[in-house]
Amino acid sequence: MCVCCFEQCLAQGEGGPLTMWLSVVALVGLYYLLRWYWERQVVSHLQDKYVFITGCDSGFGNLLARQLDLRGLRVLAACLTEEGAQQLRGQTSDRLETVILDVTKTESISAAAQWVKERVGDRGLWGLVNNAGIFHPHCYSEWLKMEDYMDVLKVNLVGLIELTLSMLPLVRRARGRIVNVSSILGRIAFFGGVYCSSKYGVEAFSDILRRELQHFGVKISIVEPGYFRTGMTEPQQCLEKLKQAWEEVPVHIKEAYGQTFFDTHYDGVKQGLLKCSTNLNLVTDCMEHALTSVHPRTRYSAGWDSLFFFIPLSYLPTSLSDYILTRSWPKPAQAV
Known about the structure:
Layout: H1 3-11, H2 16-39, E1 50-53, H3 59-71, E2 74-79, H4 82-90, E3 97-100, H5 106-120, E4 127-130, H6 146-174, E5 177-181, H7 193-213, E6 219-225, H8 235-247, H9 251-257, H10 259-274, H11 281-292, E7 299-302, H12 304-314, H13 318-326
């Protein structure tokens, strides 16, 4: 088609769909350009700001502490063990300080809050990163003992809430940030029943807190990682816990599922663990942005599996997402 004919088609309205799609592409491009400019603005005087991070013995917390230390922030790192604290101090500058914290114990939380208060003084606490978390054995809900449920909830949800409330006056004083580490399993629940429950709770608590604190200038961000290789997903340790959990399952439950079911499930868990991403920076970069950007996001989805599979899946009709998630699962021995 010649140029004159093309122009004539446009004039007659035949080019309407093309014009519409070009407009849509232009608007989408403009949106992402403006968002990029909006989000790249960095908070001033970072070297004067204190950030308290939990779970710094290893994994995301350990990497974030080192990452923020390099940025010049004053990092207050909470570790569960003295060994973890000592190793972290050996990898960072003299600015970074450590404290021993067990988020399941009220007295430990109170002591940590007082320790932070003595260091930040009237400046307040700019950032609180609730990163500490645990995962139960990778097994079905009725294979777990009630103490497994309680242990996960105490660390991942109850401890997070208690620590946040204890630090909140310091964060409010600084008009700072709270970054809560949830999970993609806090958006779509399909595996690890009590872990998902704890992370759904983190999502709900964060949403409520964000709305309650908006007039105080405090910003709340939620980081939702996909599958990453950390201490919680170390293959050998996870598989050993899975075997132990199965061995301790009551006989009537073992008969309901069957050994073949367990063996197939075991192989599936093993393959999944081996596929976990080792690029933890995808998560810690989100945390860092939430702490240092003038305009942090409300939610950060970290990992390609999170962005391109689980998030889209969470918007599908429930019956369809159920089918996609469970179509390859084995059938129990006593399945109807």
